Amino acid sequence: MKTVSIYGIPFTIQVKSTVHEVGHDIDEEMPLMGEICFMSHSINIIDSNKPRMLRVLLHEIIHGIVEEGHIARMFGKDGRHDEDAVDQLAVGLAIALESLGVTEL
Fold first, then answer.
1. Using one digit for the tens of pLDDT, what is the confidence trace for 52-67?
2. Residue 89: count of CB within 10 angstroms of its CB
3. What is the CATH number of domain 2-99?
4. Fewest C-beta atoms under 10 Å: which of 3, 10, 57, 72?
């Protein structure tokens, strides 16, 4: 099992076989591709193709950085993370890493 350090806190990365094992959006009742849990210090992502998994993992890591780093500009007026900004950063970073040959976890 791999771990990633977010502001010095180790988060375990767990690859799940179904979206139901990953979690669901509380507001939207939709299955998620990934989810970070700050209580258990874990990140769950769905088993998928390597580029998709990298992007989902980066998305969740950015959520961790925003939360642990208290990056106020990344929070919406409702106090939740700005999902569009998180996703844009994750995709941009994934593309940059993929251009360097980093394509998997």
1. 899 999 999 999 999 9
2. 18
3. 1.10.10
4. 72
